[in-house]
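User: Batch of two.

Assistant: Item 1 of 2:
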Amino acid sequence: MTTAPVIIGIVLVKNEDLFIDRVLVNILEFCDKIIVADNLSQDNTQRRVRELQQHHKKIYYHSIASPAQSHDLISGYAGTNTWIFAVDGDELYDPVGLKKLRHRIVAGEYERQWMILGNALNCVDFNIEKGYAQGYLAPPCRSMTKLYNFKVITVWSGPCSERLHGGEVVFKEGYDKSLRLELYKNICWDDAEFRALHFCFLRRSSLEKVTDSQKVIRKNISDTLSENIWARIKSRLLKIVGVEQESPWKLAKYMRGQLVTKPLTPFL
């Protein structure tokens, strides 16, 4: 008898205390285990995760000194009947949609796939009182959702800049990296099961100062890795005084097409 696949969430965070509670709650039923890799948060992120951990034993908290260490927390699952679901602290998934997706995964519908990419709304506005989110859809933006079938690989070794980024992937015979199921290109937002509100243009930490309406376009790892030493020093000095610099990468990838408005109901 074939055992059902296990779904493990790997949540990489750094100063995410405004949304981390809801981010984790929304993926609880989808995941069998949730690993939170906290890259030295200085706000209330750790406290909020620890509080949730007391009520939900499937949440495991790890403090890491570098994003690269987050890959070590999941690399050992290569070759096992495991799906790895990577979530950031600015990604709020549809829990009802994930429940349907879990049934499909457990039933083996996607066992021949290496990677599944879902829909996303890159939010520039998020209003709980009025019940809407406004932003840019993927497509035409790129999808940032990350769900990998570790059963089809034998190893994913480093060095990796963060979990599931870089390194060397060795596939089992009959599989390769082209086996990507791009759901977001064939299913519209309103019909999607695998979809997320992406708060990449919003304030996510109580430490962040808001200067442009409510938009805080925090740099990501891709931005940092492309900087020279002087640019990195400048970024660190600005962070000390609470100023976040804009991310050119996010502006290019996540702000395409028309600005749309969608209801929050499925996510709350």
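Item 2 of 2:
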Amino acid sequence: MLQKIITSTLGLSIISCAIAQDTTKTSPFKVSGYADVYYRYNFNNPKTDVYNNYTSFTNSHNSFELGMASVKAEHHVGKVGLVADIGFGKRAEEFSYNDDKSKFAIKQLYVTYAPFSNLKLTMGSFATHVGYELVDANLNRNYSMSYMFSYGPFFHTGIKADLALGGKSSLMLGVTNPTDLKSASGLPKTFIGQFATGTSDDKLKAYFNFQGGKYNDSARLEQGDVVVTYAFTPKFSLGLNGTYQSRQTKEAAKWNTANNWWGTALYVNADPLPWLGLTLRSEYLSDEKSVLGFDGTIFANTLSANFKVNSLTIIPEFRYDHASGKPGIFYKENGDPTKSTASFLLAAVYSF
């Protein structure tokens, strides 16, 4: 009897050990996501529907708003993989503004194939490589968005190749639909590219980005973009983003003179405590040829704090924007135009 008990116990121990070892294996399937909500108050207290806001995702005043609920599923087996990234909410609707005004949006959907260790092919719809900021609120330290993000590309749909060049350098080249179009039957194609590099310790990283091509038979766009980051210490880092976009139209089989807008932004990031982060974004936008409709320059400063409680990040934020154009692109409470505006925002972002 004792021998049977010892044998059974030993057998159960072996089975339990085997199960434990299986659960430690890396799963080919991964699910992640987040949800965000916010409140924004503009101190000009505007009575118009402009809200004194010309950047993405925070078009409201004195209102509690739902941002986006987002779920991202990833599956990888051997050399192939799939990513499906779905969003629901106002942020998803603005991100997919060329679609049918639905708050449910496919943010990303693509398949990958890596025939060699240094080459990966991607086909589908994927977030843009251009710029410092990202569409997902949980991946940015500032909650409100920059002008450069808002008037640059959001995503691309097409095919691209990522080639590792050795060390920290890589090259990406691709052909896509015109910017922010998931479907573009009969339209010209856009070329995209990126050269990325950095130091061996990852303190310095640099990205040189490009997109260019016709978005219909009588209009074309080209954009060059640079992102540089440097981590002085684990608690202090800087980010710099500069972008230049040129647009050109065609009339009577002749291309008109190109017009452009450009911008630059500095991000100062400090993490004095494990649960506290601070970010100051200072952005300068030049639209003196009124490509975007501002007819002048804008200087915007945004100070955000990130209070972290487990999976929750609480972001109080103060923002001040000043525009040079006359009579002003912002509005006072009585409806008169003004050159400056300030806002307070409180956001909560939960990630899993």
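Residues 1-24 have pLDDT under 50 and may be disordered.
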